[in-house]
Please model this.
Amino acid sequence: MCGIIGFSGREQAAPILLDGLERMEYRGYDSAGIAVRSETKGLQVKKTKGRLRVLSDLTHGGADLEGTLGIGHTRWATHGEPNDINAHPHVSENGQIALVHNGIIENYLEIKEQLQRRGVTFTSDTDSEVVAQLLEYHYNECHNMLEAVGRVLRRIEGSYAFGIICSDFPNALIAARKDSPLILGYGENGNFIASDVTAIIKYTRDVVYMEDGEIAVVTPESIDVFDSEMNPLEKQHSQVDWDVSAAEKGGYAHFMFKEIMEQPEAIAKTVSPRIRDGRVVLDDITLTADYVRDISRIFIIACGSSYHVGMVSKYNWERLLRRPVQVDLASEFRYSDPLVDEKSLVVVISQSGETLDTMAAMREAKRRGARTLAVVNVVGSSIAREADDVLYTWAGPEIAVATTKAYSTQLVLMDLIGLYLADLLGTVEKSEYDAILAEVQVLPEKMSHFLEHFEDVQYFASRYFNHNSIFFIGRNLDYAMGLEGSLKLKEISYIHSEAYASGELKHGTISLIEPGTLVVALGTYAALFDKAMSNVVEVKARGAEVLAVTTETFKEKMEKTADSTIVVPDTHPILQPSLGVVPLQLFAYYVALQRGCDIDKPRNLAKSVTVE
Ligand code: M6R
Model:
């Protein structure tokens, strides 16, 4: 959620820290701060509420802080309101130690009270300051920074990624992680820590992923990693293959729009390497036909938009595999005493690969003996590393908080996995298999074609942007797609919106439809189009204004009833949500634009949700 960067090198640290924070600002952004150490000035800390621009102005682009060792942080408040004092870095009482933290320390109140009884004065409301003070306490006892960090880690409970500097510890920063991502980067002019690869990709592609319980000491020349018992570890290096420009706007006004436009290419990258000689080839996983035949239950677990992908996949997989597929919200699954065992296949979907609830749900499933398969975008992320099998969506870095291209690539990859499993089970006719594969391969082209004519959606957004409440209705795959359309709209435009299975309307929700209510009616699912139309007629009869999304096949019929109609190309029914969701993404984007919202960084949200 928050972003962490640290640098120990041969250049001034502050400008590098600010640059890295700017690239990570999408993760969390109610306040920001940096701490830099120099031989002559000791620890210097600047932090402030608000966007990074404010911090940059305050420090004259970092020029005010002298030193080649430093840590930085962008905050998404959990404990204590977003203000200057609660912003990170937090400094211990005697000013010796500065610390940045991602995560939540669960027993911080207990530790705080103990320290207060010993006379320590606290300035902030945060759990993170407690760690800085506790560190100072142990450092004063043992006079060894690394030893003090070890003692603190044994005392605290919860999740953390820490970056720590100490005025007595020249040129070295200390990092530690548990349940919150942290990577180490090897640069030419110094070495880094970061919570997110985008922060340091400008400086290095040579990284090491820290594991839970590890501690690292980063100096300009070296990085030493230790386990929790302080035994030195040999870590494997990874090369990041993302292009720096992929994490830049490249002339677009917003990352979200750029990422919507990148979808055809991202889908092609996800799909092409996995289709060979007319078959789906998933080289990266090891599920055998025998194993798949033996599976008694299939679960799909995720949060937010990834969960909506799971909803689409449930319909598609049940159709292809002729087996029950259960979709669960990770935050519910993990506490539900789930009926998962060695005969369960648990598929987790996560763009970031760091969503805490999804990770916890996956661990719970593994603990109960299930086999786990992760569909993840961020290479080397925690979920990717812990799952039994991982398949990457090759969407490239997604910066906008509202997911678009990651969602689309998850969707298509889940379709491929469904097809692959159905093939192993022999539950799909060859003609159906071939038809789906043929359509998957032309999906990017069809999507590009639609994206060339997005002005219709822009026009409808300008017509409807001032509605206060918007309903999305649809059946089957259209319902699952509506959930995503509704989430997209509410998260970036702040308009209240709900998605309903059309058939459910008359069981309560239809009482909310009154003259002028905007209903986005989804009619792309061919098998239930006529049923969906009846529901459109129902809401029209109550005075609703209907904006419909349908396919070329049903255009004429829909236009007779709906007030406005957006038409997407036809494809195989299983793949139709991949095309149908695009106008919903664009609609949310243009509505938010009309309403003057901060599209890439919507209020209260963060890109990767690493707290419960
Ligand atoms: O990284 P993940 O896919 O695990 O994230 C799950 C949700 O937090 C995410 O999809 C969220 O709902 C997006 N902001 C939606 O646009």
Q: What stands out?
A: The mean pLDDT is 93.
